[in-house]
Predict the 3D structure of the following.
Amino acid sequence: MKKTMVFLLAAALLTAALAGCAKAPEAAADPNDGIAVCDDGRARPSSCGKLQVLNGKLCGEDGQSAMLRGVSTHDLIVTESFLNDQLFEELARDGGVNLFRLAMYTHGVGVMGYCTGGDRARYEEDIFKGVELAKQHDMYVIIDWHILSDGDPNLYVDQAKAFFARMAEKYSGYNNVLYEICNEPNGVDWAAVKRYAQEVIPVIREKDPRAVVIVGDPQWSSDLRSVLADPLDYENVLYTLHFYAASHKEDSRAAVAEASAQGLPIFVTEYGVTAANGGFPRDLESADLWVELLERERISYCMWTFSKVAEPCSAVRSTVPKYNGFIREDYTATGLWLLDTLAKRNTR
Ligand code: IDC
């Protein structure tokens, strides 16, 4: 390649990076054409390093765009057998998964939760295991403080602060850990969630100043409008958007597109291809439209759930007697959709 061409290419890459992963104007059919991406686009901690938020987008250490495409556990204790080396290897190598979310219910489901008399040591052991597995397999990992029936995050703010202080201290030297501080606030307004975030974020940042923090918002993490009107005053923060494809459709997609266009950093830490209760129907057509939007906007996404809990949102059939070595027949229609969707996205 001639020197001038090398220079032009370098200049183009630098411009895209400085624009905070912005799309180059000539972007054509593939919405991701012209974007400077980490690695070959399969953003990995070894190539993209510690993540950051630039101009509303998740980027690698070098400022280039990083897309995370992942799966979430169900309640950590309920699905702890999935935390095994071979499964992580399969997901990372064959599945195109570069993100694993560890959902720790505060109120519990099936078992007692972290804040309601559950086995805290076991929950934390599961987190330690999940983070190490993600590290070994070059994946990012989200530690999710999974509030749900306890709608107001302020209810357990002291426990959350103590928990995140310990996690951030333990993982400050890691480049693959992201913190999600309240899964789905509900029954409270954004002012209440904001107050909570303003207590928890400084605790994390004291131990890990550059940590990426993901903040939930009202109405089960669907109210980006309230956030836009009064965002938090911290760097490296993204806001949660959750959708369930059979329940949330065109209106919700339009709201996300609008918030993204206004520069709000968004992270879909949880979505389902089903109805919002995790049950039937599945709507794969709507799910495809969501993925198109997320890819176009460079919004990372993580599916609920990689588990075999007997409900339609689970990726693995409930009758399958193993926790790795899965073949196509072991997957539900949800799981097959996920595999096929990620396979198409492997290159960016
Ligand atoms: C669901 C689980 C289900 C459980 C229920 C109550 O899939 O097995 O009985 O929680 O704990 C969310 C929540 C997520 C829900 C999921 C599906 O973040 O915890 O999981 N969902 O209903 N928000 C919207 C949907």
